[in-house]
């Protein structure tokens, strides 16, 4: 089996030295990806393409030809992959019969032409084969006739001495540049639609993408983000090792919620993230930070607020989706396969404002930030957990907490605990005839052990997302006396988005 791999067109127009270097990198990436599936290949560089042959000297290939083609199509730098079958032939008529077996049924109702590329010494010319095979197909199959210019279908045959190669499938590749031909970046990933797509876009452009997650909602959310990050890496970037880094961010969230004005909390949250991300990026020697922010999507993503956010770091911040419509982002997430993660991913809804500003004043933001313990920035950066992304499957094998019971009724020995931030409670108090406690989500994990453990506690937040994550976290810590409380009427809420 042979595969003809066409380079991404932008590679071909590079200078000779750059194109040769990109070709070498792409060949190395192909071997790295296929070796993970025990597929061995021999690769030949042919200027504007690569010829990849399966090496079956030690036994048959463990993957089907279609599976190998699909793996190749997910490697950045490849424009398309042509799958070819190899045959021995004895005569020109034998070439026709083998071609007819493959292409005869495909030309029904279509115009077609035959093109032949020939190497070696034969008793016939290329044009002789084109006429003989084309005439035979036209005579024996219900096609719309031979058409030499702009036909519906081009049948390409390659003859190399006594071997015939028929192209049996053409598959669209990922395009872009080979991975690692551009500098490394650090992607701030939340598990939603935006950050997954922005990460993919930089992989496609040849960047090795590392993943940074700010954990504000417990282990359940982190596991979901890890799984999405691993999926993106495994599908599109497995030729290179990358890092997944998690920052325990709840302490910073607590500072923001208890000490700063509600109107600028979203902006301050992002500024704190960028400060910590910059520290980590320097350790990684990553050239830029990548986010999924899109202009105007939420209050923190106006031009003014983005400018205020960017001032806290000299690290380059790249936003590939900045002028992309949300539906287009969702469609791309569907195309690359991350939509199933994003649709079920719990979105963080803790740092919210009832009237967030869309034009934050820098002086006011800095004054509000001065109320925060800024030593937390270095502390949380040092507390970040780094792991090889290849270790994620084993790390997440045993999901935490299992299922959490959800109820709309509190029994006599059950206590409702409102875990929302104080602004949310003030804006929409919890209405229930049962006694209830108020413990903000960023304190529940540390204060739960001090509660009366003979009772069962029903955690409540407006959307039910944060309460479920915190309940799963507590169960993972060994507390079984916890459930999620939901009111019967429809709930509404909002979240910090775009990372």
Features:
499 residues, alpha/beta, eight-stranded mixed β-sheet, six-stranded mixed β-sheet, 21% strand, elongated
Plain-language structure description:
The protein is of the alpha/beta class. Helix content is 38%, strand content 21%. The chain has 18 helices and 19 strands. The chain has an eight-stranded mixed β-sheet. A six-stranded mixed β-sheet has the order 13-12-9-10-11-14, sandwiched between helices. A five-stranded parallel β-sheet has the order 15-19-18-16-17. α18 links the parallel β18 (456-460) and β19 (482-485). α6 runs parallel beside α7 and α9 packs across α14 (375-383). The longest helix is centred in the N-terminal third of the chain and has 20 residues, at 16-35. Residues 490-499 have low confidence and may be disordered.
Q: How much of the sequence is in beta strands?
A: 15-25%
Q: Write down the oligomeric state.
A: single chain
Structural class: alpha/beta
- Strand segment count: 19
Give the strand order, joined by hyphens, for the main sheet.
2-3-1-4-8-7-5-6
In whole angstroms, the N-to-C terminal distance is 43 Å
Radius of gyration, CA atoms, in whole angstroms: 29 Å
H/I helix tally = 18
Shape: elongated
Percent range for helical residues? 25-40%
Low-confidence stretches: 490-499
Q: Kindly state the mean pLDDT as a whole number?
A: 90
Largest sheet: 8 strands, mixed
């Amino acid at each position: 089996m042979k595969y003809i791999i066409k380079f991404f067109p932008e590679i071909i127009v590079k200078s000779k030295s750059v194109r040769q270097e990109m070709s070498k990198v792409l060949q190395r990436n192909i071997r790295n990806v296929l070796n993970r599936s025990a597929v061995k290949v021999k690769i030949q560089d042919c200027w504007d393409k690569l010829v990849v042959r399966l090496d079956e000297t030690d036994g048959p290939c463990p993957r089907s030809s279609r599976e190998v083609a699909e793996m190749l199509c997910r490697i950045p730098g490849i424009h398309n992959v042509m799958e070819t079958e190899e045959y021995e032939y004895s005569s020109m008529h034998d070439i026709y019969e083998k071609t007819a077996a493959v292409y005869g049924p495909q030309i029904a109702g279509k115009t077609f032409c035959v093109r032949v590329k020939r190497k070696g010494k034969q008793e016939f010319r290329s044009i002789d084969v084109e006429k003989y095979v084309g005439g035979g197909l036209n005579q024996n199959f219900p096609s719309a006739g031979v058409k030499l210019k702009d036909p519906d279908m081009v049948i390409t045959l390659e003859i190399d001495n006594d071997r015939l190669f028929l192209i049996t499938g053409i598959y669209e590749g990922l395009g872009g540049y080979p991975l690692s031909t551009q500098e490394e970046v650090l992607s701030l990933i939340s598990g939603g639609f935006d950050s997954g797509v922005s990460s993919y876009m930089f992989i496609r452009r040849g960047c090795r993408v590392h993943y940074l997650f700010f954990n504000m909602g417990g282990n359940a959310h982190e596991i979901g983000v890890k799984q999405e990050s691993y999926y993106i890496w495994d599908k599109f970037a497995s030729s290179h090792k990358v890092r997944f880094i998690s920052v325990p961010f709840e302490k910073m969230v607590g500072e923001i919620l208890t000490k700063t004005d509600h109107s600028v909390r979203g902006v301050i949250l992002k500024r704190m993230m960028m400060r910590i991300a910059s520290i980590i990026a320097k350790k990684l020697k990553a050239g830029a930070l990548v986010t999924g922010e899109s202009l105007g999507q939420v209050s923190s993503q106006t031009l003014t607020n983005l400018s205020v956010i960017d001032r806290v770091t000299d690290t380059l911040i790249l936003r590939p989706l900045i002028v992309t419509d949300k539906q287009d982002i969702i469609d791309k997430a569907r195309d690359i396969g991350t939509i199933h993660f994003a649709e079920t991913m719990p979105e963080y809804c803790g740092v919210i404002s009832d009237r967030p500003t869309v034009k934050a004043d820098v002086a006011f933001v800095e004054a509000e930030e001065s109320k925060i313990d800024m030593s937390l920035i270095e502390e949380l950066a040092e507390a970040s957990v780094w792991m090889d992304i290849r270790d994620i499957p084993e790390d997440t094998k045993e999901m935490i907490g299992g299922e959490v019971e959800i109820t709309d009724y509190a029994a006599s020995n059950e206590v409702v605990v409102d875990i929302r931030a104080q602004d949310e409670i003030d804006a929409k108090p919890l209405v229930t005839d049962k006694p209830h406690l108020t413990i903000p989500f960023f304190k529940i994990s540390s204060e739960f052990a001090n509660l009366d453990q003979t009772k069962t506690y029903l955690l409540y937040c407006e959307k039910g997302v944060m309460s479920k994550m915190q309940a799963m976290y507590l169960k993972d810590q060994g507390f079984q006396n916890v459930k999620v409380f939901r009111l019967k009427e429809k709930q509404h809420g909002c979240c910090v988005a775009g990372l």
